[in-house]
Write a structure and sequence with these properties.
single chain, 235 residues, alpha/beta, Rossmann fold, 2 domains, 8 helices, 10 strands, disordered C terminus
Length: 235
């Protein structure tokens, strides 16, 4: 597996792939990509180790994976751009639709990121203009949502009384669980099982064109969403 761990969800997924590989009789070798270590370098060391196949998640430049993997079957977790590899991903669009279920509402996107700090920074920008607060927010991931919720509550803004907040991923970290965050759950165990199965099929001789396996997500309702006052705001 080639990976770049950027958030808690990646840690959860890594743990799930370890479990899935062991259950199906495989040993998992890890190679990380960093700012100084490219995806190609990481893949090259796995090719030299005579592995049966290569899984990529979290790392960028997916289209280069097929070339770097040479004759080994590659699989990608979470990407919409396969680069000639099998893809295993969650139905993210369906997850957002499940979280919104709204009609005729204005919407906008605020630049943030995949971290607790990013959530606090976005919340602080909104707090600078309290009248412009939305009634609901969907964050990029759970840590970002947690930072957003904590910052609003520290400023005396009720969540969910004034603003409902939804995260994404279903991160298993203790801090997220204590917050009882409403989130769109990506089932890391199902993702892991599918990617190991796809790679196993390839290793056993499956030569069909690359496949995209899109797996369902679910909305897990916690204590950060609820009825809110309808407040006008422009996109």
């Amino acid at each position: 597996m080639v990976f770049e761990s950027r958030d808690d969800h990646h840690v959860d997924l890594l743990d799930a792939v370890y479990r899935a590989a062991e259950e199906q009789g495989f040993e998992l070798l890890l190679r990380a990509t960093t700012s100084r270590r490219s995806q190609e370098q990481a893949v090259a060391t796995l090719v030299g180790a005579r592995v049966l196949g290569i899984v990529n998640f979290g790392a960028r430049r997916t289209p280069r994976l097929r070339t770097a993997a040479q004759d080994l079957p590659p699989a990608v977790i979470g990407s919409h751009d396969s680069g000639g590899a099998d893809v295993v991903r969650s139905d993210e669009a369906a997850g957002v639709r499940a979280a919104v279920e709204a009609r005729g509402l204005a919407d906008r996107t605020l630049a943030g990121g995949f971290s607790y700090l990013a959530g606090t920074q976005v919340a602080q920008r909104l707090l600078d203009s309290p009248a412009d607060l939305p009634t609901a927010v969907i964050a990029a991931d759970d840590p970002c949502a947690a930072g957003f919720v904590t910052t609003l509550r520290s400023a005396g803004i009720e969540v969910p009384g004034r603003v409902s907040v939804v995260g994404f991923d279903g991160t298993r970290g203790e801090a997220i669980r204590r917050l009882d965050l409403t989130t769109v759950l990506q089932d890391v165990d199902v993702l892991a099982d599918q990617v190991v199965r796809a790679l196993s099929d390839r290793a056993e001789g499956d030569t069909a064109p690359p496949r995209e396996h899109v797996l369902p997500v679910s909305l897990v309702v916690g204590s950060t969403t609820g009825p809110t006052a309808i407040v006008g705001w422009s996109s």
